[in-house]
Amino acid sequence: MPRTTGNGNGGGLTIARRIAAGRRAMPTAMSKIADVVSEHPAAPVELTITELAERAGTSPATVTRFCRALGFDGYTQFRVGVASEIGRGDADESWQADIGQEFGAEDEAGKVLQTLVALHVENLETTAAHLDLDVVLRVADAIAASRHVDIYGVGGSGVIAREFQARMYRIGVNAHAWSDVHEGLTSAVMQNSESVAIGISSTGRTEETVQMLSQARAAGAFTVAITHDTDSWLAGLADVSLATAEPTPYLRPDDLSVKHSQLLVLDLLYLLVAQQTFGVATTHLAASAMAVSGHRRSARAARTPALQEESR
Fold first, then answer.
1. Could you tell me the end-to-end alpha-carbon distance of the chain, in angstroms, rounded to an integer?
2. Measured between alpha carbons, how far is residue 297 from residues 239, 301, 303 in Å?
């Protein structure tokens, strides 16, 4: 329970007001934590005490002192307090916590669109600027020469994994995507030195993806991590990692919008593999196009009903 009696910080004050009231008396290290929480009110709910300390450039012990200065026994109680306030807070606070400060609740549709485009373009440009093309080519070479490719991803990253698997399969690469950890581990244990295993996780901390990629590496596969955190658990166990842009305050790690930078990396890999397997790739593309051609109406046929209607 919050320690709100006898310290002058409790009462009916919200956590934001407690921070504002005690800001001047805070040491520099605690002020840094206050900055993080003020700019991103949901941070304590989303981050562990160590992660919040790292983001603020301070220590977990300082975070604990910060919590106590606000009237809480510790970080756990502070997180509960923040979560409760987000749940019952006013509309503006909930909007900023869940949607972000880039978008206003009354913004016109055109402004929302422009803001989204700017954020997504920035994300793509940041990813492109930091990609190591030598590493990308190394991964493409390994895929082109492999007998089997496993792609692991959970949740939103699982959607991306399945998309990449479909593209690889169309150009003749024996690729399989796994989101269920039991099925993924079963496949991973059967890999060897002629296999490539790719783990996709924006944060690099998705436990199931880490487990599957770790098992594939233990079996001898060449392992690749695709994540925005090159110091993450996933990147640390992979042979190589391909970095995507870190999410902005709006583009949350679990938001599908974040996946645009992942798709950029995977599109690049797809094209480079297709170049290296040109003959096989083009043969498979032609065959797959013919296989589904009967299910696609020609442009002329699609226009016919409209033309017949006009002639009446």
1. 77
2. 46, 6, 10
